[in-house]
Amino acid sequence: MRITYGLHKEYYVNYKNYNNNGLSKLGKLNHRWRGGVTSDKSGYILVKSINHPYADKNGYVRRSHLIMEKIIGRFILPKEIVHHKNGITNDDRPTNLSLFLSQSHHISHHWKEIGFTKTGLCR
Questions:
Q1: Between vectors from CA 118 to CA 116 and to CA 123, what angle results, nearest 5°?
Q2: CA-CA distance, 47 to 64, in Å (whole number)?
Q3: CATH architecture of 2-121
Q4: Fewest CB within a 10 Å sphere: which of 55, 78, 103, 106?
Q5: Nearest in space to 33 (alpha carbons), one of 45, 22, 43, 48
Q6: Where does residue 46 rank: exposed (0-12), middle (13-18), buried (19+ CB within 10 A)?
Q7: What is the pLDDT along the chain (123 residues), one digit of tens a residue?
Q8: From CA 9, how far away is CA 99, in angstroms rounded?
Q9: Is the distance from CB of 63 to CB of 84 less than 8 angstroms?
Q10: How far apart (Å, rounded) are the C-alpha atoms in residues 41 and 39?
Q11: Secondary structure of residue 58 in the 3-state scheme
Q12: Which stretch of DSSP H or E encloses residue 37?
């Protein structure tokens, strides 16, 4: 199909990438669909979960959050932090995950790991 914009510019639309409404195919109908699993720039695995109350604008939730929610039997609150014990962000085994009540508790955990206290470095 040829679409003309202005006097001399012509653009061609490939029908394979569009459905009957002229919109691109979403979800399982899209040729780039990978089963609803992807990763973010930090290496966390994201899972498509549109009905999750804390899903991002694209409907994805970190897999580590879903696993921790299954363990504790409730949704994780936005202020709670899921920590990977070995530091590998895509290692979502239940034995590798722990839950902190807030970011400050999570940071204090890391300070204790390196031996840092409120008065200074203790080694």
A1: 30
A2: 10
A3: Alpha-Beta Complex (3.90)
A4: 78
A5: 48
A6: buried
A7: 444 444 444 444 444 445 555 556 767 777 777 778 888 898 999 999 989 999 999 899 999 999 999 999 999 999 998 999 888 989 999 999 999 888 877 887 777 766 666 555 555
A8: 57
A9: no
A10: 7
A11: coil
A12: strand 37-39
Residue whose structure tokens are 């590998």? 88
User: If you search the block for the tokens 């979800």, which residue do you land on?
Assistant: 27
Q: Is 0.70 topped by the overall pTM? A: no
Q: How far is CA 10 from CA 14, 24, 81, in A?
A: 13, 20, 52
Answer whether 46's CB lies under 8 Å from 62's CB.
yes
